[in-house]
């Protein structure tokens, strides 16, 4: 066959060019080593083919569908500002930005990594410098569950550097490791992790070690009032990673340590997205060093430090990333370490920043330099130096806290030297809440919000009870009438009932066939007999003016789906969010709009909308009448991830023209969200319920 007949050849048109440009893309920044621009261009052109179709250009020439929609395109190529300090002959560095169609990744992390570097990683003179995903592709990944702010809350450390140490060395007995864990927690170390070399060796078998260390840290926390956690290492065969993670959680672990270079980045992602697990994940860099470029020789190979130890662990759902700090025994430069911080913290859609954990042979004497370089939003990791500082591990830990700038040297239940007994148990002054006028105002607003929610919940509860009572009365009356009819003259089988005689009402609860009617005398009223109206959520920060009816799937039916009716008041909106499950929406009342990624579409009566897994979405009512729709969703589903409307707006505006009204709507939501957060204040937000109260796997467990 002629080369020009491979694929679906067609002449390029304006429509196809527009389609290519508007389809979502992600971009990868590469560093290329070549003596001149022509040589660099040759490397990048080969990369565009190698990373997608792995065919010569003659087989996928310009103008074919595959060339337009699948083959990567070089967007820019320029000489790099920073050149090697001691370049070899012909080693000139070039920055290249390559654009890939989102579809090439399949929306999955393993294939995304394959497209980013795949075969080209085997070649020389190319390094992945950075990865920039489109909002659409970024929405496919839930990312970290906790991140830096979530870890601060979980550990009870609202400010100051967090501290981590490791239980070591390999060969130590379970009893001694547990004793070390107790002392470190007693001394205030926030995260006590396994050394990455601890697995399931006979010296300290995994399950025995995890039980003992969890119990030791729990005992110390009970005595101090702290929230220190133990993080066992999940360096396990592939088929045991999840079971060991679940065992760790059941035993009381507060986090886990994963080694993605060995068990894979996607194993971390799967665990991070598992709603039944829900523990922080700490990424350890073992083996990943083989994939790093740069270094003391400034090699043009592998991944940059920012991409491999910052961006990718974050994309895989890790909440913290460990890396060797400059000045230690691993040779990372200060610039490379700061690049990791950038990858850990920069804006990535709605994903939270993750906690950088510099360590790697660092000593107590170097903590001051680390503080000056990294600031407070980090977790300092020191192992051997902390263990060897003195024989008193508790005192060593407190010394570590002090030089790290922490002021909470004693827990809420401890008595510091020179402090009387009546002070023990109080909140440390450094973290005490200032009961100022502003705080009291916020508390009053929060109480008002809670009272309003309680009033609405009470109203709905009373309506629900009334509906249940009427249903019971109706059923009892029907049973009595049925019995009386039978006592008199029951209709003979096969006879025809008189017009207007209705079938008995179907059950509400249980796995029975059933029908729920809207009130006949109020056709304008979108309610259902015997089904109570419920609040969309209890917290109004992410939505406005929404309610719901759980129609089918929540009352004992064996459906693999749930059918819900949602209603949005004029000017209201549902939560802007994304999740891994899909759902379908059918407009039933009035009209509204649906946000699907960066685009907005009208939804009128009878219109259908489908939300694909990972797509950021929201429904809004911009009309003057109620907007109601049915939503059909899987019974077993993952937890939605709320998206910050400000961040979403900024991301969408950077790459798309915004439809009329979209900017105003998202800015209004951001303002509403900020006002709600301010009203909640330091005392904490009003407890947030969910429109999706589910337990993943419940149907399967019930069936079993």
Automatic annotation (TrEMBL):
Its main location: plastid. Residues 565-633 form the Cupin type-2 domain. GO terms for molecular function: magnesium ion binding; monooxygenase activity; ribulose-bisphosphate carboxylase activity. Residues 477-493, 679-688 have a biased composition (Low complexity). One of its GO terms (biological process) is photorespiration. Pfam families: Cupin_2, RuBisCO_large. Heterohexadecamer of 8 large chains and 8 small chains; disulfide-linked. The disulfide link is formed within the large subunit homodimers. This is Ribulose bisphosphate carboxylase large chain. It comes from Micromonas pusilla (Picoplanktonic green alga).
């Amino acid at each position: 066959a002629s080369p020009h007949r491979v694929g679906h050849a067609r002449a390029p048109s304006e429509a196809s060019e527009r389609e290519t440009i508007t389809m979502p893309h992600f971009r990868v920044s590469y560093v290329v080593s070549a003596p001149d621009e022509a040589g660099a261009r040759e490397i990048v052109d080969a990369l565009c083919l190698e990373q997608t179709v792995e065919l010569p250009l003659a087989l996928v020439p310009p103008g074919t569908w595959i060339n337009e929609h699948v083959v990567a395109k070089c967007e820019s190529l320029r000489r790099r500002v920073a050149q090697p300090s001691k370049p070899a002959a012909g080693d000139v560095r070039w920055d290249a930005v390559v654009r890939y169609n989102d579809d090439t990744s399949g929306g999955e992390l393993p294939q995304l990594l394959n497209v980013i570097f795949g075969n080209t990683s085997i070649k020389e003179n190319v390094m992945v410098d950075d990865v920039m995903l489109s909002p659409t592709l970024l929405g496919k990944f839930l990312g970290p569950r906790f991140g830096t702010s979530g870890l601060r809350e979980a550990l009870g450390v609202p400010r100051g550097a967090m501290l981590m140490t490791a239980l070591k060395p390999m060969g130590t007995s379970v009893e001694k490791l547990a004793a070390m864990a107790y002392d470190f927690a007693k001394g205030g170390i926030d995260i006590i992790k396994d050394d990455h070399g601890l697995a399931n060796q006979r010296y300290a078998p995994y399950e025995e070690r995890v039980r003992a260390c969890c119990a030791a840290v729990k005992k110390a926390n009970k005595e101090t009032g702290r929230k220190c956690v133990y993080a066992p290492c999940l360096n396990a065969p592939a088929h045991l990673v999840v079971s060991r993670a679940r065992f760790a959680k059941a035993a009381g672990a507060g986090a886990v340590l994963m080694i993605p270079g060995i068990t894979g980045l996607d194993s971390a992602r799967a665990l991070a997205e598992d709603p039944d697990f829900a523990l922080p994940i700490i990424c350890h860099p073992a083996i990943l060093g083989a994939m790093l470029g740069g270094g003391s020789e400034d090699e043009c190979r592998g991944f940059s430090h920012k991409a491999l130890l910052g961006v990718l662990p974050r994309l895989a759902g890790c909440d913290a990333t460990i890396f060797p700090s400059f000045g230690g025994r691993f040779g990372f430069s200060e610039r490379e370490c700061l690049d990791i911080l950038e990858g850990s913290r920069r804006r990535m859609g709605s994903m939270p920043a993750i906690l950088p954990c510099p360590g790697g042979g660092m000593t107590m004497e170097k903590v001051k330099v680390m503080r000056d370089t990294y600031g407070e939003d980090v977790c300092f990791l020191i192992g051997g130096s902390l263990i060897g500082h003195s024989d008193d591990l508790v005192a060593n830990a407190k010394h570590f806290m002090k030089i790290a700038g922490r002021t909470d040297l004693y827990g809420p239940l401890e008595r510091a030297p020179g402090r009387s007994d009546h002070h023990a148990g109080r909140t440390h002054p450094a973290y005490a809440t200032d009961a100022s006028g502003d705080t009291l105002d916020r508390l009053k607003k929060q109480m008002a919000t809670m009272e309003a929610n309680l009033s609405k919940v009470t109203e709905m509860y009373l309506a629900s009870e009334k509906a249940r009572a009427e249903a019971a009365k109706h059923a009892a009356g029907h049973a009595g009438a049925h019995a009386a009819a039978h006592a008199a003259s029951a209709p003979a089988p096969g006879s025809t009932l008189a017009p207007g005689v209705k079938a008995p009402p179907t059950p509400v609860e249980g796995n029975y066939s059933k029908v729920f009617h809207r009130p006949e005398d109020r056709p304008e009223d979108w309610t259902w007999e015997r089904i109570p109206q419920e609040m969309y959520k209890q917290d109004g920060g992410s939505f406005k003016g929404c309610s719901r009816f759980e129609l089918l799937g929540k009352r004992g039916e064996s459906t693999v789906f749930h059918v819900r009716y949602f209603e949005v008041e004029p000017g209201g909106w549902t939560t802007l969010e994304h999740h891994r499950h899909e759902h379908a929406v059918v407009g039933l009342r009035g009209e509204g709009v649906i946000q699907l990624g960066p685009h907005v579409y009208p939804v009128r009566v009878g219109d259908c909308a489908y939300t694909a897994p990972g797509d950021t979405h929201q429904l809004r009512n911009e009309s003057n009448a109620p907007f109601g729709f049915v939503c059909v969703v899987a019974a077993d589903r993952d937890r939605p991830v709320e998206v910050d409307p400000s961040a979403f707006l900024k991301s969408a505006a950077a790459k798309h023209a915004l439809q009329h009204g979209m900017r105003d709507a998202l800015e209004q939501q951001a303002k509403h969200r900020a006002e709600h957060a301010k009203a909640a204040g330091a005392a904490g937000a009003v407890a947030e319920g969910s429109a999706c109260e589910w337990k993943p796997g419940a149907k399967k467990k019930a069936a079993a």
